[in-house]
Amino acid sequence: MAAFTYAPAIVLLPFVSFLVALFAGDRMPKGGALAGITATGGSLLLSIWVALTVAGGGYHNEFVYTWVAGVESVTLRFGLLLDPLSALMLLIVTLISFLVHIFSLGYMNDEDETGLPRYYAGLGLFTASMLGFVVANNLLMAFMFFELVGLCSYLLIGFWFREDGPPSAAKKAFLVTRFGDYFFLIGVVGIFATFGTGLFAPITQNGEVVAQSFPVLAEHAVVDGETEAIAMLDTVGLSAQAWFTVLGLLVLGGVVGKSAQFPLHTWLPDAMEGPTPVSALIHAATMVAAGVYLVARMYGFYAISPTALAVIALIGGFTALFAATMGLVKQEIKQVLAYSTISQYGYMMLALGSGGYIAAVFHLTTHAVFKALLFLGAGSVIIAMHHNENMWDMGGLKEKMPVTYWTFLSGSLALAGIVPFAGFWSKDEVLYEALIHGFGTEGGLGTAYLVAYAMGLLAVFFTGFYTFRMVYLTFHGDARSDTARNPHGVRWNVKGPLAVLGVLAATVGFINMKPVAKLTGAHIDFLHAWLAGPDEGGWPAALVTSSHHYEGLLHDVAHVTAGYPLNETPTLLASAAVSLGLALAGAGAATALYRGSDPVEHTDKLGSLKTLLMHNYYQDEYQVWLATGLTYPLARAMDKFDQGVVDGVVNGISSVSLFGGSRIRRIQSGVVSNYATLLTLGLVLLLAIFGLAGGWF
Amino acid sequence: MWVAALLAVTLFGSAAVMLSPDRYAGKLAAAVSAVPALASVYMYYVFLTQNGGAGNALLSPGEVAFGQQIPWIDLAGYQIAYYVGLDGVSMPLLALTTILTTLAIVSAWTPIDERQSQFYGLMLFMETSLIGVFAALDFFLWFVFWEGVLIPMYFLIGVWGGPRRKYAAIKFFVYTNVASLVMFAGLFALVFNTDLTSLALPAMAEAFRNASGLPTIAGFSLATISFVLMFFGFAVKVPVFPLHTWLPDAHVEAPTPVSVMLAGVLLKMGTYALLRFNFTMLAETAQALAVPLAIVGVVSVIYGAMLALAQRDLKRIVAYSSISSMGYVILGLVAFTPHGMGGATFQMVAHGLISGLMFMTVGVIYNTTHTRMVGDMSGLADRMPWTVGIFVAAAFGYMGLPLMAGFAGEFLIFQGAFDAATLGSAAPVLTSLAMFGIVVVAGYLLWAMQRTLFGGFSLETDYEVGPAAFHDVAPLAVLLLLVIALGVAPDLSYDMIQHAITPLTGGGA
């Protein structure tokens, strides 16, 4: 199909804009911004075309490039997998990236930043890498672009390299995610060694499978006991399911790093050192989203492992709560948003772990919109505030910048989960899935779900609180500084993207209004239909990536079962009511504490808890200690050992031979009679030896 | 004929450069070395397109490309010949040698300011020997070139080096020479116990692979003893822990263009010889000893990386990280799988390019700042943007960033070693341990970059810092392009490598 023929251009266009901006950006108007806007705009249009083709029942899974042609060994290729999941993600990434490019005109160009070609080159490469990751049809290609995404985050977080903070934050972001990627890489190598392929979905020709995918092979091995195609099992001495769990958890290492889940979340708040549009891109659509997307992409592999599911759900639930509590006390607007990002991705992990594949993709979509909006809104505020990010210096911006205020409010209502804004629908579905599967599933997995659900539910209250604390401190009350009294104006290039996203944040939840669908019986849960596909034939049969299939696996293999404390519809409504109530309670508490013309800090009332929260539970401290307090001294000690012992032995041997040489040299005395004596003695000795050996005596 | 021409051009060119005035020596040497560089690119192209020598030079000598065999000496019943030829292993290494020599010579224009004609003459003489090492298929000829590399290297470090150059040069020379002696003893113990009539490497390979009834000494088969002695001899060159201590000293004292050759090509002599001798001629013994050898490789990876973490001198950092990178090669070789051994060979080429690039970049910075110490300078990105941009790219190449050559080499090694039959159930564990190197390497390179390249500008030494000259940056750009080209399309080299490697491995992952 024509759209699929042009699909590689979705990735290549931003890559071209990277090259153009890098090498010709300083000779172009706007420092290469126009190239980036054109490229991402083109990618967006192509992505829409792809999405429309997919909506018409099209799908695509083909190799496009052979990276390493194996001779008597596994061949490694690049290919494109275009199905509803990747088509949706393409839309998200290209749309956010396009808007971020436009916003950057206001945030970077209008502020007379230097190094614009480098900035736009970075954005272009970042977008291209993420798009390459999204369309990847196999795990190795996904890993490679995943790493390139990491490189781009390094380059962009460290954009302002002349200061001390950004290079340090960039280093930390790359290093912490690299630590996660270490496990991911073992997982990739292990999956290739085990299955001989890293394909996410089977490749079919005329209805025949010509290359099987690893999730399907794993499924056959676990469900039907077909282990002929599975290598490695004898080597590791594990059952198929246990080994697949190990592999799944290894890959999860990369997910935890990139999606900033506990305990590898520490890089993300530091990453706020980067330019704010970059933060929007990283948090909404690219790097952080990559981790969660990967789990969704190979969900069939996780759906057959109850242990992996429990781990994902618990990490997600815990991170959602843990990060939300840290967001309560932050003073800088971007810090609040940073912790909210960690928390929101926790919800997606919770959904994936507890069998809510659609809920996770739904929340990924809505979050992309409202988090991009909130970051860009914060960026607008930061421009207005002359790059002062402290909320206690703001206040009263509501009247001065109405477009920013109303759009930011739309994003905040979505984040807090207030009906009918986007976040309400998706967060509610996440919690609902965790709840019913917690009730229905037996044994440890069910318990894990209920624990994770409880943590996620509690986090709703905190989310409502920190979101509205942020809104009140930033926009309401009296201005608390001179810059807030006379904010810098922003132009169309800032307001335009905000308006687009503001409308979307209010409406994008309507793609999957499950409670309304249940109540009215109308088929308006469009995302459900999008990800499930037709019941017979079509892409679900060919690619085996439909949510129906995943639900079957969850039920049959992992025994994830839905259970309802009330009947189905009442449970759904009660769950929605509880999470909405908690969100409103959180928002109400923030209103009570921070409303009014001159709000005061209440965090001192938390006592020692405040210190703990301000220090982010000392997570940074122990990780920095691991690097500088443990690894570095160990390296120094090894260096001492190397210099002293290993090299000491080498020098010792040479000293011994030099010493020996100097002693033997004394024989060379230069006195002729001595030499004559030695000669005679030598001759006698030789004769004696020959005599003894030859038997002359 | 082609190989002979390369040897002749560099050898006579070396003499001509030595006799030329200092003023022109650098330019002349670059022009001379461009001939073998361009010629080897053409040979590479012919090899690639005509698939000449599709096989292993030692196992199927009839298929070698650019082969030439002329009887030379008849020594005590052993036929010695001028016998050269290339296969998929030696072709990429030969091209690496000639290209890197030219670039190293150009990169020497700025820092080398005394006795230029001798310096460049020795560089070209070293190139002759290196070409010979990779092309020779007769042991005697090979050994002449092998030892021939030491002589120019000794003088290049000892005359143009840093403050402790004499110590470093002598240490390098004695250490590697003793190693050669041990290797020689191990090899000839085998030669004398088989009925060889020729010292051609293919004949040796056939004789050793089929040797039966070898004597045993103290319960060990002579094959095992010879293997260990030869491994020791070559491992010094690689270098492998704990035989590596000559390397940091040599690197720190050597002038940068010499470091480029040392890290880029000379270390590969060790792994190349291991592949040709230990892992081809004594393949069965190598497989039997796979687990301890893999442990040596893994320890080298982690040990080298940890030591790199402790260094402040940029050159020492790269030197120790070379030990780490070469440890991967050992792991890949012992796997005896196509991707393991093939990846190891690819890694030799990839690391040759990347470490050469890294040393060259450090050299450009040193030429400008006259210090290499992390902490003595910061914020260089502001003053020399292109150099720093290439530094960052090279560092990420070193960290194994995908679509750069290092990733391909490392990934293939990991893939080949992860389920290697030779390592049994230890394979996934040892491979996973080795992989941790990719985290540590990111640690020390990112740390060094943050300290030296970024932040506000400051410099302890008293020099003016500005953008580097074109002829300083151009070799960096060429190398970076090669690194990216091999990362995007590894098959440019990996295809021919695999054809030469698979006869050794007999299938598998």
TrEMBL record, chain A:
It comes from Haloarcula pellucida. It is found in: Membrane. The lineage of its organism: Archaea, Methanobacteriati, Methanobacteriota, Stenosarchaea group, Halobacteria. It comes from the Archaea. This is NADH-quinone oxidoreductase subunit L. Residues 136-435 form the NADH:quinone oxidoreductase/Mrp antiporter transmembrane domain. GO terms for cellular component: membrane. It is a multi-pass membrane protein. GO terms for biological process: ATP synthesis coupled electron transport; electron transport coupled proton transport. PANTHER family: NADH-UBIQUINONE OXIDOREDUCTASE CHAIN 5. The chain crosses the membrane at residues 6-25, 32-52, 85-107, 119-136, 142-161, 182-203, 240-257, 278-296, 302-324, 345-362, 368-385, 405-426, 446-471, 492-511, 572-594, 672-696. Coiled coil: none annotated. Keywords: Membrane, Transmembrane, Transmembrane helix. The keyword Transmembrane applies.
UniProtKB/TrEMBL annotation, chain B:
The chain crosses the membrane at residues 93-112, 119-137, 143-160, 172-192, 212-236, 257-277, 289-310, 317-336, 348-367, 388-414, 426-447, 468-489. It comes from Haloarcula pellucida. The keyword Repeat does not apply. This is Oxidoreductase. Belongs to the complex I subunit 4 family. PANTHER family: NADH-UBIQUINONE OXIDOREDUCTASE CHAIN 4. GO terms for biological process: ATP synthesis coupled electron transport; electron transport coupled proton transport. Keywords: Membrane, Transmembrane, Transmembrane helix. Pfam families: Proton_antipo_M. One of its GO terms (cellular component) is membrane. It is found in: Membrane. Its main location: membrane. GO terms for molecular function: NADH dehydrogenase (ubiquinone) activity; NADH dehydrogenase activity; ubiquinone binding. Residues 136-423 form the NADH:quinone oxidoreductase/Mrp antiporter transmembrane domain. It is a multi-pass membrane protein.
